[in-house]
Fold this sequence. Notes:
Layout: H1 10-14, H2 22-35, H3 57-79, H4 83-89, H5 95-106, H6 108-122
Amino acid sequence: MDISGNALAKILDKHCLEGHNFPKWFQNLKIVLISEKIAYVLDMPFPHQPPGDNVTEEERAQYVKHIQDDTQAKCYILASMNSELQKQYEHMDAAIDIILHLQELYGEGTRNRRFSAVYKLVNTKMVKRAKVH
């Protein structure tokens, strides 16, 4: 992968997202995005539509900056994933869309739900004299 530029980005180079390591990887990603001053793209909605004709130059510049910063964040995200995950997420438009989907799949809450389901399954017992089908 070899992310160049930001020295902190080398953290992502060493700790590629494999899925199971999502919480630690996400923590490292946020550190890199904060150092690049683009972490806000993970908190603000992605502007899917360009501003209309009746906006100020400042608003238009903010839109362009958000798109550029989101593209940079998306590049950091994709570059720090294994190739299988890259193929799965490269088509997504915004960095926040990728992160939300990853959180749904690999976030802390998911791990707890998975543990609870396995725990219940392992500790399930048949009722005495119940027929096995």
